[in-house]
Design brief:
The chain is α+β, with helices and mostly antiparallel strands. 40% of the residues lie in helices and 16% in strands. α5 (111-122) crosses α6 (124-136) and α6 crosses α7 (145-160).
Length: 654
């Protein structure tokens, strides 16, 4: 190498080092190993990655792609894999992975200089143009973000744009982890202002924090976006199953398919739940959202009140209902309170309904040991929410709330019935809270029975008949009848033995075409599992008897007993000498290798936590529900025993 070349190379290196790049911010830095950053498991997140490829190669696509998602949805993992993929194609211009674990990687002022540094290492023409600019102004790296972008990226790129490859990408991951929130807003504004004028595309990831979300919303036409928490759940769960199989593949003994499925069930759509404990993460989010140094007292109270309502609501809930139940007089205050909670709460863009992103967050919040000062007591706050629901009902419920004119007119014949319902029944009344007192639960069971009877009766075609027919013909033992008949005027009164026996009347009946030996209702009441004399089992809809799953073949004799697991995810069937566990969603066989003296089996049932299985016949046996090994066996009886009910500590036999 000539002396001139050595001198020139040293000059280039000196000028580039003056930028003070954050070298640990690249996706594959040594820091990535220290903090266990990794790519996607092979075969997962294919849809997301293919969508990114489409964006890269589409010449008409926007210059900015924003991938956002709640905590734990896999943003950084996807971004890392994306970098690997495009680097192999020589399309990765630069990467900056922000992280709170490194001071330089959370410094917003280091992003542009680091991108310029990496781009100079990628492209010799760009390197030459940049070094000429640095020779004239070596202190650019210490300027503000806008000045940095103008001089370090825009100007040199415009000089050499014809020498730059098409479809070059810069990846900036986890913008929300930077310290300077105002700086983050500046970077986003800067990109929207200048990205279209440079031969680069920018892929950004972040949680939907208020300042980022609002900036992205104001530039909706200038970027593409994907909300990871809105991806179809079945696709994400399939990816998590692949991830868990790879991670647990080296265990001894290896995890069974049933155990993998149980972990997938708990993970939901959060990869992070499968990968790590998230208590620290949730604590950090709440500390940031409830930072009393930056908030007024009433703002903190609003955030806590809104969080409480969403946590204890049993379903997604709109802003107006939250305001009513939280006793906040202005829905705008609710919207303001939701902003700092976007990383743990999800508000759908279509309907505006608010819910927790994942079951792990309520689990965290309801555990005093885990959430500490952020803890919500389940009993106390459930009762508080129930009281507020009753106050709303007391103030807004009334007889014939939709002002229907006649019981002789069916609902279909009422003009604009849907609009009338929406106008007459506020969302706060449509919402229901889960009651906690035991006597209220009994009442709800009766109410459910009453409404089911009305729904399957021709009287349901005309809503006024809920009073004049369904209530009048209800069993006198029904709590709904006892509570409301004295509040209703002009009801006919029915007497006689037939009315007393009305509780035993079936709601409906179906012909199955086969002899059914046993059946079980799913925990959610939506499915019926039947075991048949022809050795098959099937899962039917509890509403119309349509077949969900089956018929399933595995037994060689008539099926004597069937049962659902407590979570509804597995089913068990038993016949003489055989016990089989199946997936309740797709009918795949999970385990048929139960070991021991099976013999004649009259009944079978899961334990409340789903880990054990109990079978009864001429002896009672307890099994491990995952691997089929025997746990306990009672002495043989001289007569068959049927399992009537069971829990971990007590079995009732008959």
């Amino acid at each position: 190498m000539s002396t001139w070349s050595i001198v020139n190379e040293n000059l280039v290196n000196t000028r580039l080092e003056c930028l003070s790049p954050a070298k640990q911010a690249s996706y594959d830095s040594s820091l990535s190993t220290q903090i266990s950053r990794r790519g996607c498991t092979e075969g997962t997140r294919i849809g997301v990655l293919d969508g990114l490829d489409d964006w890269i190669y589409d010449p008409t696509s926007s210059s900015i792609y924003w991938m956002n998602g709640m905590a734990g949805t896999g943003k950084t993992t996807i971004a890392s894999t994306f970098c690997e993929r495009i680097e192999r194609r020589k399309l990765l211009a630069a990467s900056f992975f922000c992280t709170r674990t490194s001071a330089e990687c959370r410094d917003i002022s280091r992003i542009v200089p680091t991108i310029a540094y990496q781009l100079a290492r990628y492209s010799i023409p760009f390197q030459s143009a940049l070094c000429n600019i640095l020779g004239q102004n070596p202190d650019i790296g210490s300027k503000n973000v806008l000045k940095q972008f103008e001089l370090l990226l825009k100007e040199p790129l415009q000089q050499v744009k014809d020498a730059m490859p098409d479809s070059l990408v810069v990846v900036i991951d986890a913008l929300d982890e930077c310290d300077d929130r105002n700086g983050v807003e500046l970077v986003i504004d800067m990109l929207f202002r200048h990205a279209a004028h440079v031969p680069l595309k920018f892929m950004l990831t972040s949680r939907p924090e208020p300042e980022i979300y609002s900036k992205m919303a104001t530039h909706a036409q200038s970027r593409q976006v994907i909300h990871l928490h809105d991806i179809e759940k079945s696709l994400v769960r399939a990816d998590i199953e692949l991830y868990l199989k790879e991670e647990l593949g080296l265990m001894s003994p290896p995890a069974s398919q049933a155990e993998i499925e149980q972990l997938v069930e708990r993970a939901g759509t959060l990869f992070i739940y499968a990968a790590t404990l998230i208590d620290t993460l949730y604590t950090a989010v709440l500390h940031s959202a409830l930072n009393e140094d930056e908030l007024e007292t009433d703002e903190t109270e609003d955030i806590r009140a809104v969080l409480c309502i969403v946590l204890f609501a049993q379903e997604p809930i709109n802003v107006e209902t939250i305001a009513e139940l939280a006793e906040i007089d202005d829905p705008q205050r609710v919207i303001h309170a939701l902003h700092p909670l976007r990383s743990v709460l999800h508000q759908s863009e279509e309907a505006g309904l608010v819910s927790t992103l994942h079951a792990s967050f309520p689990d965290f919040m309801f555990s005093n040991e885990r959430s500490g000062t952020y803890f919500y007591d389940v009993v106390e706050h459930s009762q508080l929410l129930a009281q507020r629901c009753f106050l709303v009902m007391k103030g807004q419920l009334r007889f014939n709330i939709c002002d229907l004119a006649s019981s002789f007119v069916t609902d279909k014949e009422v003009e604009n019935i849907e609009e009338r319902i929406k106008a007459s029944i506020p969302s706060t009344l449509a919402y229901h809270a889960e009651p906690s007192p035991s006597e209220l639960i009994i009442f709800v069971d009766d109410a459910r029975s009453f409404l089911a009877g009305f729904a399957y009766n021709p009287a349901s075609h005309s809503t006024p008949h809920i009073y004049i027919s369904s209530l009048a013909f209800s069993s006198p033992s029904n709590l709904v009848y006892n509570h409301y008949q004295k509040r209703s005027r002009g009801l006919i009164k029915l007497q006689g033995s037939l009315i007393k026996l009305s509780d035993a009347a079936p709601l409906t009946s179906w012909a199955t075409g086969m002899k059914i030996n046993s059946l079980a209702l799913s925990p959610d009441g939506a499915r019926i599992l039947i075991g048949c004399n022809d050795s098959t089992i099937s899962i039917l809809s509890a509403y119309d008897a349509s077949v969900y799953v089956g018929p399933l073949h595995g037994h060689t004799d008539s099926v004597a007993s069937v049962a659902f697991s407590p979570d509804g995810g597995r089913i068990v069937s038993a016949s003489p000498g055989y016990i089989i566990i199946w997936n309740a969603h797709n009918g795949t066989l999970i385990n048929d290798s139960f070991q021991g003296l099976l013999g004649e089996i009259e009944s079978v049932s899961f334990s409340p936590d789903g880990t054990l299985l109990v079978s009864s016949g001429y002896m009672v046996q307890v099994w491990n529900a995952y691997d089929g090994t025997p746990v306990r066996r009672n002495p043989k009886s001289n007569y068959p025993l049927w399992l009537k009910s069971g829990n971990l500590g007590k079995l009732d036999l008959g």
